[in-house]
Amino acid sequence: MAAIVRTERLSKNYGAVAALADVGFECGAGEVVGVLGLNGAGKSTLLRILAGELLPGSGSVQVAGVRLGADSRAMRRHVGYLPEEPPLYREMRVRDYLCFAGALNGVPRRDLAGRVRAVADKVHVGDHLDRVIGELSMGFRKRVGIAQAILHEPEVVLLDEPVSSLDPAEIVGMRELVRSLGGERTVFTSSHHLREVHETCDSILVLHEGALIAHGTQAELGALADRERIEVEVRGTLADAARSLPAGAAVVATEDPGGGVAVLTIDLAGAPREAVVARLVASRLGVRRVEPVRSDLEGVFLDLVSADRPGRPGSRDPHADRGPDGAPTADQGDPERLEPGTELVRRQVGTRARRPLMGTGPEPPVAGSGS
Amino acid sequence: MGAVLLIAQRELRAAFAGLYGWAILALVLMLDGLFFNAYTLGSQRPSSEVLSLFFYTNFGVTMAAAVFVTMRSFAAEREQRTLVLLLTSPAGDWQVVLGKFLGALGFVLCTVVAAAYIPVMVYLKGNLEWGQAAAGYLGIGLAAVVCTAIGIFCSAAAPNQLAAGVAAGFLVTLQVLFWLLSGISDPPLDGVFAAMDLYREHFEPFQDGAVHLKTLVYAPTVAFLFLLGAVRVLQARRWR
Predict the structure, then answer these.
(1) What sign does the dihedral A318-A321-A324-A325 (CA atoms) show?
(2) Which residues form the domain of B145?
(3) In the sheet where A229-235 sits, what is the strand order?
């Protein structure tokens, strides 16, 4: 698949602060790409550069074969952009605003009315075309913002935090809308809500402190944190259960439901699952339940940002693991570097059950289920 | 050119869409009327003098209107986060600045046209000299071009509307006070300051019916420089 968006060694500083550092990736046509990161990770800066609003300090950006800087105006023709705060003129009616945005982005005058109607219907604001924008709810404003972003049929659509400030019903609608935009065009949607990314995106860019620390499908990212874990329910005490584990295996989370029962999440760390269970049985702990623990996007994300290692497996940053001459560094053969930061992961997983990042609802599976 | 006119049209419509534009228009008409009443009504002046006085006051009122209109131009859009729509469109920075400039200038000229009932009264009740009227309005138009360009630059560069208004007010006032500086400066600076003075050197002859070629060069040049400055500000912000 030909890359529709390509960045190489993209860097951007705000004063002494590096908002982006050596970010390089490629995305194909029709993909829905989630840009994931904590607040201040560089998500908005990346999208603003892709939109042509900002120029990078160094590195290059190509959209649909057109390079930013060489012909920025031509590049902007291929991009539709919805910032976190939709750029809406509150005094205008929706129809007038969309006509203005369409004409500004080069939609021929003869096609404008039809295009506005079609796009308004697609984003479900067709019944509100004659309303003044200032009277619309935030959900409808976001939809109008998306309409202006896709009106000129760009190959790439950039949506910065499209679900922020929306109520739950609006979030569901927006999720479906974002999903529906993929296929026809490449969509970048930034969020720190993992559920949004999980449910709408084909692939994910993970940014942390300006660095691209991973890029891949959810399955590929899941493989990064693919330590085998099991949840075991035993009759006995937590201390007894922990003592009976073989070397290497470690308890990463515990639960005490009472009644003489303990629930442990165990990181097997290479130990065979049956060996762990056998040790628990041999210790005369009544094993009531054994279940594999699936890696989820939240876990993967926390692992990645806690380990904070640019160039780790899965990252497609072509330069992160290379020396100044472009040759692989000795680090690449270091097995420690290939393992996610185990201690940090333990700490994060231990708190995960009590402090979910994903909001309400069941945790998503790692990959392949789609929605 | 399409994007320029599109942006200009939207600016002009936006100015009349809210209270702000109508308030400025009302203020302009009130001030023009008050000054006309104070300076000329009831006096036995010849029509040419009445017209000259009208242009004199209308010049000041137009300058103020240009400052108030343009202070919102970029600064308000930045505050409302709508500027990004223009900056991420295929329109170039020059087109954005020119569109904003023409939109604001259009509004300022609307205020000038709205006050044209005064020369019409002179025509109906006195002896209007068409040449003087044409020259006077040409001078007002050129002054509006200069002041609007200054306002656009300040609005692009300032962090907010208030700062844009203060900066534009200062620069516009400076434009009409250069003659004071020329009076206290030694050659060759006195000549430079005199040449830069917007009122005495450039506009005053127009209100009396004389069209000076140097002003026809001066006004577009100054406007171009300030608009160029606004473009450079926008370009620089893309790097920040």
Answers:
(1) negative
(2) 2-238
(3) A250-258, A261-267, A229-235, A286-293
Who's near B15: CB < 8 A, 6+ residues apart?
B21, B69, B103, B104, B107
Q: ipTM of the predicted structure?
A: 0.89
Q: Tell me which of B6, B85, B87, B235 to substitute to probe the interface with A (most A C-beta atoms closer than 10 Å).
A: B85
How many Å apart are CA A114 and CA B138, to the nearest integer?
43
For chain A, the 3-state helix, strand and coil shares in percent, each to the nearest 5, are 35, 25, 35
Q: For residues B107 and B212, is the Cβ–Cβ distance under 8 A?
A: no
Total of domains in chain B: 1
pLDDT tens sequence across B137-180: 999 999 999 999 999 999 999 999 999 999 999 999 998 888 88
Structural contact between residues B131 and B205, judged by C-beta atoms closer than 8 angstroms = no
| Helices B130-157, B47-70: inter-axial angle, 10-degree rounding | 20
- Which DSSP letter does residue A328 get? B
pTM over 0.90: no
Non-local (6+) Cβ contacts of A236 within 8 A are: A260, A262, A283, A284, A285, A286
Which residues are bridge partners to A158 per DSSP? A81, A188
When CB atoms are compared, the residue of A81, A92, A106 closest to B88 is A81
CB contact under 8 A, A77 and B240: no
| Nearest chain B Cα distance for residue A89, angstroms | 7
Pick B89's closest partner by Cβ from A57, A76, A89: A76
